[in-house]
UniProtKB/TrEMBL annotation:
Sections of the chain in a coiled coil: none
Keyword Secreted attached: no
Classification via InterPro entries: ADH-like_C, ADH-like_N, ADH_Zn_CS, GroES-like_sf, NAD(P)-bd_dom_sf
Protein's organism: Knufia peltigerae
Protein name: Uncharacterized protein
PANTHER family in the cross-refs: DEHYDROGENASE, PUTATIVE (AFU_ORTHOLOGUE AFUA_5G03930)-RELATED (PTHR42813:SF1), ZINC-TYPE ALCOHOL DEHYDROGENASE-LIKE (PTHR42813)
GO molecular function: oxidoreductase activity; zinc ion binding
Domain Alcohol dehydrogenase-like C-terminal: 170-307
Cofactor(s) this protein cannot do without: Zn(2+)
Residue stretches making up the Alcohol dehydrogenase-like N-terminal domain: 17-129
Pfam family, one: ADH_zinc_N
């Protein structure tokens, strides 16, 4: 499959963790990066049913089997069968799904920042896209937009909600706009980058500059006494605002900083919902677990359920792009070989 990624397209932050060396302990030389692309089908395996050579497709980042317990519950990023890594079993007690170009612990699958990409379980992992749409539009539907929708789903953003989003990168800005689409009355955009905050303001969000407020949670509570109904962390473990967490990370005392997660929990109202969408991998110190418990806050997280988005996203332009999902089947009670397609990369 020719995979088409774009250097101007909005990549999710989790790929930056690898380029910055934060995940060196689970990387290996020669691993091809990348897990958000569109492509042109060059070749299909004998068990691919829904794709043909020449089809233009969105390549989803999550590789799922479509058959296991978790896929049956449409929790595709928790798939039991597509990640042979034993490291995650040791780290988390369970393994997650395979992911393209995302380290040893997610299956060692070569990524799609390459001329060609092999796509396992292609009927489920690829989504047909129209040929007459500018490439920059469908490429964002591979990961950024589904991840943003996943964040809104986890926190159950709905009509009239007051929402706070920590992080104004591609995913954070998308969460903010989708929260508005889902009926949120106010969306606070929290970041320390003035340019990103200005973009958020231009979309109708309420910017909160961390550089102007030493404790952004206290500031939000000063203007929203009840707090946020929905708080979403979309910046990840590298976003340390305090000297304490920066020092602990530098010394290796903790793997993940919890400044932003702590602020989200504090700013969210009693009985509210919090989601962690920015990546966290290891352990952290000083997470306010007492505050989380006593305020009766529901905390959720996890990688996106990419294959589920077409069923839940109401945007009229998305369902035509996110259609054509297939399902894997068993033959004679035996698990069959994963159907595969190849794409060839085009860079814009």
């Amino acid at each position: 499959m020719r995979s088409c990624t774009s250097p101007t397209a909005p990549y999710v932050a989790r790929i930056l963790h690898m380029y910055n060396g934060d995940l060196n302990k689970v990387m290996e030389k020669g691993l091809i990066m990348g897990h958000e692309a569109i492509g042109i089908v060059e070749e299909v395996g004998p068990e691919v049913k829904d794709l043909k050579v020449g089809d233009r497709v969105i390549i989803l980042p999550v590789i799922a089997c479509g058959e296991c317990f978790y896929c049956g519950h449409k929790e595709f990023s928790l798939c039991d069968r597509t990640n042979p890594s034993g490291e995650l079993d040791q780290m988390y007690g369970h393994r997650l799904s395979g992911i393209f170009g995302y380290s040893k612990i997610t299956g060692r699958y070569p990524g799609d920042q390459a001329e060609y990409c092999r796509v396992p379980n292609a009927d489920l992992t690829c989504v047909k896209a129209p040929a007459n749409v500018d490439a920059k539009k469908p490429v964002s539907l591979a990961d950024v937009t589904p991840t943003a929708w996943h964040g809104c789903e986890l926190t159950e953003v709905g009509e009239g909600d007051v929402v706070g989003v920590w992080g104004c990168g591609a995913v954070g800005l998308s969460i903010q706009r989708l929260a508005k689409l889902r009926g949120a009355s106010k969306v606070y955009a929290v970041d320390k980058d003035a340019q990103r905050l200005e973009i958020a303001r231009s979309f109708g969000m309420i910017p909160v500059n961390v550089n102007d407020h030493a404790d952004p949670a206290d500031y939000i509570l000063s203007v929203e006494p009840h707090g946020l109904e929905r708080g979403i962390e979309a910046s990840g473990f590298r976003s340390t605002n305090s000297a304490a967490h920066a020092t602990m990370r530098a010394l290796g005392i903790e793997g993940d900083g919890s400044d932003t997660a702590s602020a989200v929990i504090k700013a969210t109202r009693k009985g509210g919902n919090v989601a962690l969408i920015g990546d966290f991998f290891y352990s952290t110190n000083n997470l306010p677990i007492g505050m989380l418990m006593e305020k009766a806050i529901t905390l959720r997280g996890g990688q996106l359920y990419a294959e589920k988005v077409s069923e839940i996203c109401p945007m009229p332009q998305v369902p035509p792009l996110l259609s054509g999902y297939g399902s894997t089947e068993k033959k004679d009670g035996k698990r069959r070989k994963a159907p595969t397609a190849f794409t060839k990369s085009i860079w814009y």
